[in-house]
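Late entry, evening session. Most of the bench is empty. Finally got around to the prediction I had been postponing all week. Sequence below, unchanged from the version circulated by S.P.
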Amino acid sequence: MDVDRLLCIVLSGAMVAGSAFAQSNDKPSTADQKRTIRIGISPTTNRSRRQVIPTWARDQLVRELQRLRADRKSPIVLEAVPLEATSQESASAEAERKGCHYFVLTTLVDPSHGPGVSGGPDGVQRAPIIIGNANSSQTLAIDFTVIEVGASRSLNQGTAAAPVEEKNDVRAADEAMRLVAHRVASELRQDHVPNPD
């Protein structure tokens, strides 16, 4: 092999390596790829016998979501926005005005061990069923629904429950809202693309 040919091979290899290095440096950093999702949080509707202030429960969920705002494994940054509206229609309109992509409705309910109903100002609904040995009279449950703004479709819904210790409804509601926040954050960090503003 002559020197000219060897030099040509070495130079072409260096050009390929340099090109690959330049391409990897052109990629945006993880910080540049971050995407913020705004979530409106409505005051909690209370359909239970528990004593919890609706705006306090909402603010607990806002605080928990702000604590979960960023996750180094996800490009999604969550921004929780308090809403005043409680019905789905009015909350959707308020969330849209405030630039939210999604909004969350929460309802405090009394769980049961079998088929049961929960009554409230907006009518009667099925009560969540507690599975296992938990005493339903000593359990606080929060139903939640994550709804996409403008689409009126439910992205996710569920129930989070927490035991009520020493008749402390506030502490149990705080724990249940922490669980709701984790489930909402986990759902929104999946590969959902919010509607363009």
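Two things to note before I forget:
The beta strands are 35-41, 45-46, 76-82, 102-109, 117-120, 123-126, 139-148, 154-163.
Residues 20-24, 113-124 have pLDDT under 50 and may be disordered.
Will write this up properly tomorrow.
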